[in-house]
Amino acid sequence: MKAIFLTALCTLFIFVSCGNSNNTKQETVTDNNTAEITPLQLSENEKANNYDVVYLVSDTGEYINSEIAQNENGNFGVIYYRDINQNLNTFNVTKAGELDEGNISAVSYDNKTLEGNFPSIAYPFVAKIDGKEMTFKAAKTPVTGAKIIEYTYSNVSPKSDDPRVFQFKTAIFALNNDSKSANIDKINLDINKDFCITDVSTFNDLTKLLTAQSLISNKMTPIYDEWVKSDYISHIENYSSQFGIDYLSEKVVSINKLVYEYTGGAHGNYATVNSVYSLENGNKLKIEDLIIDLKSADLIKLIVDKLVKIEGRDANSYFGLDEISLENNNFYLTSKGLVFTWGIYEIGPYAIGETRVLIPTEEIKPYLKDEYKTIFE
């Protein structure tokens, strides 16, 4: 079920990002046949925001992603906070001062609060999250953060008897590459491969990033027109994606992408796609690259024992833990260990949501290949 859902979303995504390249031109040609970047022209149905992403982690393993943008009204954005049990809290920023001054305030959908100084890698982020005081610091890594160029398009059906609303959101996610590392360039190209970007300098130049052909070609008018008249696309009403960083070190970066699709009915479908990259060679790591034996009975038992101890769950919460597989697992890393994950419907019903199990560093080490036993150092 998860594979079918992801395939459908990726098919739409590639069609949108690579199929509309003739709609709007990014470059103009001068008399000297040199390309110049023209300003990004957006219609009233489009928006584009530029977010600075900061990853900070506490000594106990909790971490945040601060994603702040700026417009004529000041700073805005979100702060994603992942606790030690891998529960995610999303805080919408309600107040933010400038860098190096002022405080930041944010509130979650369930009215939890976050307050602290402005998040930065230059100094500790001292915050109070839902009344709990915490301190987050920058990781020791060649990656100072990331940029998100977010594009949204929304419209309504022109038919008076059709109340549907069309919404689309996507984003370019680029790791900062102050050191001009070829490995980071390689990672950025892979993260954004659906945008058909081939010039790595795009990711190191904010002006290019803001006016990239791949972003402009995501104008939703053609696909919106198809949505209105096509039986297939008429079912697609909301598609969006967002990015975050789960782990940064001198050796690896672990990135997540949340994809959501609503087509009507009781609820939408969603999936988190995790990607772990080596900063030493730029390669994307698979679970079989790290683990000695994915069929190890001891490792599987360790994971199953943790699955049934998740708060509010027991063995009956799942479809069948005796048949659980670790092959092709959509894993990610944190500063405190390796997290195995399963999507909706993969090992349990929709109601339990996505499932995450953190195997702490010392517990997972015996199962890691020798070359990865120091991956968390």
From TrEMBL:
<keyword id="KW-0732">Signal</keyword>
<dbReference type="InterPro" id="IPR037126">
    <property type="entry name" value="PdaC/RsiV-like_sf"/>
</dbReference>
<dbReference type="Pfam" id="PF11738">
    <property type="entry name" value="DUF3298"/>
</dbReference>
<feature type="domain" description="DUF3298">
    <location>
        <begin position="323"/>
        <end position="361"/>
    </location>
</feature>
<protein>
    <submittedName>
        <fullName>Putative dynein heavy chain</fullName>
    </submittedName>
</protein>
<dbReference type="InterPro" id="IPR021729">
    <property type="entry name" value="DUF3298"/>
</dbReference>
<feature type="signal peptide">
    <location>
        <begin position="1"/>
        <end position="21"/>
    </location>
</feature>
